[in-house]
Design brief:
This protein is about 65% helix and about 0% strand. By secondary structure, the protein is an all-alpha fold. Helix 1 runs antiparallel to helix 2 and helix 3 packs antiparallel against helix 4. It comes from Lepisosteus oculatus (Spotted gar).
Length: about 290
């Protein structure tokens, strides 16, 4: 506290609270430390500052104000882990040291101030000054994906050309899907025909175990043919509809408007000095005129 002078106290009083606290820290030569130590220093700094400002407001002599600041700092240091009854005795001993410089009214006011602030919240001060804080930190590893290096603009594709290509790719994909559907339909129809024939043969073996006559055979054949025809007809109708969709998709591909081709990025217009077909002069060779004979 020997660093805290009367001139420093006068300067601190003129400043706002935050600026005054920073100036007081410099005068006390308290260095910034870890987060835990920083919290303790902040509490101690507030306590010393409040004691100094109390003494100034009460009209203490400037030398006494400096001594009040010293007592506040020493009280925080010497009272760590001390019983409350001993702290009161410690305060009385500290005040007796600055007794000659203080009026009895100032002496009593400072004692009551310490009792109302430090002693009343003594347990809280001890918790901050003595107890170790439990620091909980969560470490999470984050993977940062750097964007790929962009290609040169000369290798890029015009937006209209890109949209045209995307539309063409969509139409071709839809066409391929329809062709796959037709093939799948043909395969399923063939499998259904085989399944129906097998089922019909099994039914015939169960119902007609004896010799069949001509009429029964004709009726069975007609039923089989009719079932096969219905199945094939249904398949053909679906195939025709899908083929029509394929033709429509092909027509859309042919009629899709092509984008207007733009000049490449490295394209340069011809300069004014470059001769063109329209500006080139055409030289005409005239035959020599016959000289008239005299």
């Amino acid at each position: 506290m020997a660093c805290l002078t009367t001139a420093a106290i006068r300067e601190i009083v003129k400043l706002e609270r935050q600026d005054g606290l920073q100036h007081l820290r410099k005068q006390l030569r308290w260095k910034e430390s870890s987060e835990d130590q920083e919290l303790r220093q902040s509490v101690c700094l507030d306590f010393v500052y409040d004691n100094v400002m109390f003494a100034v407001k009460k009209g203490f002599p400037w030398q006494a104000v400096t001594q009040v600041g010293r007592i506040a700092e020493e009280l925080l240091t010497e009272s760590k882990g001390v019983a409350l009854s001993q702290v009161i005795s410690l305060i009385q001993n500290k005040l007796s040291q600055c007794g000659p410089r203080l009026l009895p009214y100032h002496h009593q006011a400072f004692f009551e101030f310490l009792m109302d602030t430090y002693v009343r919240h003594y347990c809280l001060y001890q918790s901050v000054l003595c107890a170790e804080r439990t620091v909980e930190s969560t470490v999470t590893e984050l993977v940062v994906y750097v964007p790929p290096c962009p290609e040169p603009l000369s290798k890029g594709t015009d937006s209209q050309v890109w949209e045209y290509q995307q539309r063409q790719a969509t139409l071709k994909e839809a066409e391929g899907q329809r062709r796959a559907d037709i093939q799948s339909l043909k395969d399923s129809v063939g499998q259904k025909r085989e399944n129906r024939l097998e089922k019909l043969l099994k039914d015939l073996q169960i119902q007609y175990s004896h010799t069949l006559d001509r009429e029964v055979i004709e009726r069975i054949v007609q039923d089989v043919v009719r079932a096969q025809v219905d199945l094939v007809l249904e398949s053909l109708l679906k195939e025709v509809a899908m083929t029509a969709e394929i033709l429509e998709l092909k027509l859309q591909q042919k009629t899709l408007a092509r984008p207007v081709c733009r000049p490449p990025l490295n394209f340069s217009l011809p300069s004014a000095n470059t001769p063109t077909a329209s500006s080139a002069k055409v030289s005409t060779v005239h035959p020599p005129k016959d000289k008239k004979k005299k």
